[in-house]
Design brief:
Elements (H helix, E strand, L loop, with lengths): L2 H13 L26 E18 L5 E4 L10 H9 L4 E4 L8 E2 L4 E2 L11 H10 L3 E6 L6 H12 L26 E4 L22 H18 L4 E5 L19 H9 L5 E6 L9 H6 L4 H16 L7 E7 L13 H16 L4 E4 L43 H12 L5 E7 L4 E7 L5 E7 L4 E10 L3 E11 L6 E5 L3 E4 L3 E9 L8 E2 L31 E11 L2 E10 L5 E2 L2 E5 L5 E6 L2 E5 L2 E5 L6 E2 L10 E5 L11 E2 L2 E2 L4
Parallel strand pairs: 1-15, 1-20, 2-3, 2-11, 3-6, 6-7, 7-8, 8-9, 9-10, 10-11
Antiparallel strand pairs: 1-12, 4-5, 12-13, 13-14, 14-19, 15-18, 16-17, 16-19, 21-22, 22-29, 23-28, 24-27, 24-30, 25-29, 26-27, 30-31
Helix pairs in contact: 4-5, 5-6, 6-8, 9-10
Amino acid sequence: MTRTFVDLRMPRWRGKWLTFIPLFCLLISAIALVVPLGKTAQAATSTQITVNANQALGGLTTLSEGLNVAIWDGNMLDSASTTAVKNAGVATLRYPGGSASDIYHWQSHSEDNGGFVNPSDTFDAFMGVAQSSSAQAMITINYGSGTPQEAAGWVRYANKGGAGYSGPVPTYSGGSSTGHTYGIKYWEVGNEVYGDGTYGSTWENNTHGLGPANYATNVVSFSQAMKAVDSSIKVGAVLTTPGNWPDGVTSSSSPQPWNTTVLSTACSAIDFVILHWYPQGPGSEADAGLLSSTSQIANMASTARAEITQFCGSHASAVQIMLTETNSVTFNPGKQTVSLVNALYLADNYMAWLENGIANVDWWNLHNGPSTGNNNSSSLFGSAQYGDYGILFTGGSPEPAADTPLPPYYGLQMLSRLFKAGDTMVSSSSNQSLVAVHAVKQANGNLAILLVNKDLNNSSTVSFTLNGYSASSSTTVYTYGQNSSAITSASGSSSSVTIAPYSLTTVVLQPGSGSTPAPTATPTRGTTPIPTATPTRGITPTPTATSGSGSSCRVVYTVANQWQGGFGATLSITNTGTTTINGWTLKFSFANGQTITQLWNGSYTQSGAAVTVTSVSYNETITPGTTLLSPPGFNGTWNGTNTNPTSFTLNGVTCSTS
């Protein structure tokens, strides 16, 4: 394979499935940030960061930081590539790569209909890369044209080799006649199977019949066959990402939504569910919109968890959620994918998902190749006139030399400065919307704080309030930003730091004198705590919605995405008053006959146009001056016009909308 062939083909392959999907409407509602790129930075703003080092959000594992690797990658075996992966701290590699998985036959290292694979990128060669990178493998088996027997054979070859091995043997060069004992734990049943034509758009191969019912039944068969070979493996099933097409959509082959059907039938046979998320549509990219899109993650994660809880019964707590593909735009990557903005987004994106209880996040992908003629608007940051989904360049024109890191690589590498497996995420907050924060209590006692400055023009002087942690004066500050060619480090202060416009900064504090308690587990941000049984006697009454003279509020209604006949929206609720809200009831009316079909982070009723949404146990309290951390969101239907509601009341008080 020549690099030119890969460069021209693969951007189409990643995105051809979405050619017919209506573009996301998230960016329509994003705040515009149109400033000349050469504008001089203004005086530094002030940001207050609060870290609660004794409030744990969850542990970090070797599964947390992942990356996709594809069978058509002309540079997968480069030693420089392997070194870069290891230096970025990537500990999980997903193979064989996106939609190619559903036409790929591992034993012959071939694709259906003569599709292209790099002859060198065999399963055994990939495992060599994984082992050299100190990473574990995650495998997507061929659901599209494969069989349970083929999948079980792959498990046997990978994990059950040795003396007396009698399983399948690869026909490609470099295979083993006695199999292996790789111990691969995570196996996905197919890629984006809902893209098989079930909802109209077709990009994923599927020979097993349309619809989630067929998929769910077959997931059970695949799982049983694979676990009969190795009962220790974990098997995953594909879900639609909450609030994103085709989530909540029905059709003749899907009379109930995809997730409802798959979980109802297959949950007992699986160990994790699979989500993918690309927040923008091509041609609609906006830097401010991308950087603000991570605010949707808590809702998506909590909805996925709520669906698992609803349909998986006693098995629900054992089912993990994994985001096995993510990048900035659904297809036709433009200049934003190779800019600093995508590096900022990557770091914030990974941490937001992980903090909300997702076990694994995998970027798309290691190498992809240049794509020209897409959105290279001057309104987007940077001067590149091409896009590339990869973290390392392929060397195809007009790119730099092969294996040169793109900016998103440094976003990924910055995470290795923040955490390693065995560390613990802890609660943190920022009083500035354009400065995101994520904090980790490292196993060695250090406290690491990642700051993402999403402001193009202004630096910010950041002050720290550390609850439950006593820091010494010894501090290391890692930075990556505009005009950076690598992450740099320097000594710093434990009380404050100034962060540059559009930059990533990780401050690593060392413990000082005084005790630093171990973090205490708290409900993960944005997730629904699983209720525990309590005696009937002494049940705490449900809080009564309260209002008073100190009550005032703001509600922001945002259509996150829209497709023909359907849409997803969120309702941001801020307590602008002086008294705490303990239990809330939100009321509004639609203007054009819209109907809610699914709502999360709340309970709802709808009578005609009138909608009433009430709080649930984990989001009933809103303290003065704060915005609800787990706000309600919903999917709905529309016909003709989808006008936003303009009037909202919270506990009987009319709210502002701006």
